[in-house]
Design a protein that fits this description.
heterodimer, A: 252 residues, alpha+beta, four-stranded antiparallel beta sheet, 9 helices, B: 194 residues, mainly alpha, Rna Polymerase Sigma Factor, Chain: A, transcription (chain B), RNA polymerase sigma factor SigK (chain B)
Chain lengths: 252, 194
C-alpha cells in the first residue's frame, strides 16, 4: 500500500472491519495524522450502526437472566484516564509517581494492537476474541504498575540498554520494561529469570516482536532478590543455557 | 437523493443509552439491565446476520454484553454514540469469529452468500425497529448494485474486502472505493452525522 490518497479510500473498509490486520494497523497510523479521515470514519461507523439496527431481532427471554447473572460476578475495567491520574499524583514520591505515569503511558501505547491507539475502535480492538488473553495480561500488568506499594528500580543492561523493574510485594508480581534493547539474534529470545539467591527461576519471555514493551513477569516474586536476562533458543529454556546479558537487583 | 429521510431513529424511552452507560461504568447493575434491554436485540440481530448459527450467535452476543459491562468505564461519549460503541464491539466479535472459523474453509459455499439477503424480514414487534428497517431498506435501494453488494457482504456477512473482491470478481481498488462511496451515500440518505 502506498500514498495517502489511497489510504484515505480505506475509511469505508475500516468502518466495516473489512481490512486485514496489517492494513488496519497501517490505516490507524494514518488516521492519527488525518483529522478529515478520522471524522469520516466516525460518520461511516455511525452509518453502519444504522445498518445494524435494521436487523434487530427479539432476543430469547432466558438470555436476559443469563447475562445479568454473569455480569454480577464479572470485574469491570478501570477507566483509562483515572489510571493515569492515580500515577501522576502524590507530591512526596514525585519521582516515583512520574516514572509510573510514564510507565502507564507506555503501557497504554503497548496495549493497543499495532502499538497505536486511535479512537473508539481501540475498544473494539479490546474485544477481539483472540485478544482477551493478552488483555488480561495487560490488566495484570496495569495492576502491578498501579499498585500502591509498587517499587521501581532502573539499571543498565547490555549495550547501553536500560531495564526497569516494577515490583509489587503485596501482589507478589513484577513487571519489566527494557529500553533500547536490540532485537535478539535470529532464532533466539530474551528470557527473564527471578534470582532466588543464585538459582535462576523462569519468569517468562520478552516478546521478540516488541522487546521494549512492558512485560508482566511470569510467576510470583517470592523471595527473589534479583532478576536476570539471558538469550535462549526460541521458545525459551527450563534453565539458563547462556551467561546472563544482564542482572539486576529487585527493589527491596 | 441527498435529502435525508427522517422518520425518527430508535427513540428509547427513559434515560438514554449514554447516560446509562455512565451509570454502568460506576458498577450499577440495574442500569446495565436497562442497557441490556436497549442493545440486546440489535446486537443479537447483527451477530446472527454475520454468523447465522443461532447457538453461536447467542454465545457471541453474551460475550459482547459482558464486554459492554466490563469496558463501560472506557466508553467515551465524545467519540460516538453508545449504540455505535456497542454495535462496533458486536460486529468486531462476530467478524473475528467468522474469520477464525473460516480459516480452512469453503470457497464454493461462499458463492451461496451472494444470494443471501440481509435478514430485513425478521419479525419484530417494536415499531421503531420496523421504521428503522424501512428507512435503511429504502436507502440501501439507492445504492448501485456493486455498492450494495460490497457493503452488505462486508457488513452483514463479515467478509474482508479481499473476499468481497474475489466473490464479485472485481479489482481490490474498486471494492475499497465502493465500500467507501456506498457508505457515504447511505450516510447522506440516512442523515447520519457524527
Amino acid at each position: 500500500m502506498s500514498g495517502t490518497a489511497e489510504l484515505h479510500t480505506l475509511t469505508g473498509a475500516y468502518a466495516l472491519h473489512a481490512l486485514a490486520p496489517d492494513e488496519r494497523a497501517e490505516f490507524e497510523r494514518h488516521l492519527e495524522q488525518c483529522p478529515a479521515c478520522e471524522r469520516e470514519v466516525r460518520e461511516l461507523t455511525a452509518t453502519t450502526t444504522r445498518l445494524g439496527l435494521a436487523v434487530s431481532v427479539t432476543p430469547p427471554p432466558e438470555l436476559r437472566d443469563l447475562v445479568l447473572r454473569r455480569i454480577a460476578t464479572e470485574r469491570q475495567e478501570p477507566p483509562r484516564v483515572a489510571r493515569e491520574a492515580r500515577g501522576a499524583g502524590g507530591g512526596g514520591a514525585r519521582g516515583r509517581a512520574l516514572s509510573r505515569f510514564a510507565l502507564a503511558a507506555c503501557l497504554a501505547a503497548a496495549a493497543a494492537f499495532g502499538g497505536i491507539a486511535v479512537w473508539q475502535h481501540q475498544e473494539a480492538e479490546d474485544a477481539r476474541a483472540g485478544a482477551s488473553e493478552s488483555r488480561r495480561a495487560s490488566e495484570a500488568l496495569a495492576a502491578v504498575l498501579a499498585a500502591p506499594d509498587a517499587q521501581i528500580r532502573t539499571g543498565g543492561l547490555t549495550e547501553g540498554a536500560t531495564g526497569t523493574v516494577v515490583v509489587s510485594r503485596t501482589r507478589d508480581k513484577a513487571a519489566f520494561i527494557a529500553s533500547g534493547l536490540p532485537k535478539p539474534p535470529g532464532g533466539k529470545v530474551y528470557q527473564l529469570w527471578f534470582d532466588d539467591g543464585g538459582t535462576m527461576r523462569d519468569a517468562g519471555l520478552i516478546p521478540s516482536s516488541a522487546p521494549t514493551a512492558p512485560v508482566l513477569m511470569a510467576g510470583s516474586v517470592g523471595a527473589a532478590s534479583g532478576l536476570g536476562i539471558t538469550v535462549e533458543p526460541a521458545g525459551g529454556s527450563a534453565r539458563p543455557t547462556s551467561d546472563p546479558v544482564a542482572l539486576m537487583d529487585l527493589p527491596a | 437523493m441527498k435529502q435525508a429521510v427522517h422518520i425518527g431513529g430508535p427513540a428509547p424511552a427513559g434515560p438514554d443509552l449514554q447516560e446509562l452507560l455512565g451509570q454502568v461504568a460506576r458498577g450499577d447493575q440495574e442500569a446495565f439491565a436497562q442497557v441490556y434491554d436497549l442493545v440486546c436485540g440489535p446486537v443479537l440481530g447483527l451477530v446472527r446476520s454475520v454468523l447465522r448459527d443461532p447457538a453461536q450467535s447467542e454465545e457471541v452476543t453474551q460475550e459482547v454484553l459482558l464486554e459492554v459491562w466490563r469496558s463501560a468505564p472506557r466508553f467515551q461519549a465524545s467519540r460516538g454514540s453508545g449504540m455505535t460503541w456497542v454495535l462496533t464491539l458486536a460486529h468486531r466479535r462476530a467478524v473475528d469469529r467468522v474469520r477464525s472459523a473460516q480459516a480452512a474453509s469453503d470457497r464454493e459455499q461462499r458463492a451461496a452468500r451472494l444470494n443471501r439477503t440481509p435478514a430485513f424480514d425478521e419479525v419484530t414487534e417494536q415499531v421503531e425497529s420496523r421504521l428503522e428497517r424501512e428507512q435503511v431498506r429504502r436507502c440501501v435501494r439507492t445504492l448501485t448494485e456493486l455498492q450494495r453488494q460490497s457493503v452488505t457482504l462486508a457488513y452483514y456477512q463479515g467478509l474482508a474486502y479481499r473476499e468481497v473482491a474475489e466473490l464479485l470478481s472485481v479489482p481490490l481498488g474498486t471494492v475499497k472505493t465502493r465500500l467507501r462511496d456506498g457508505l457515504i451515500r447511505l450516510r447522506d440518505c440516512l442523515g447520519v452525522s457524527a
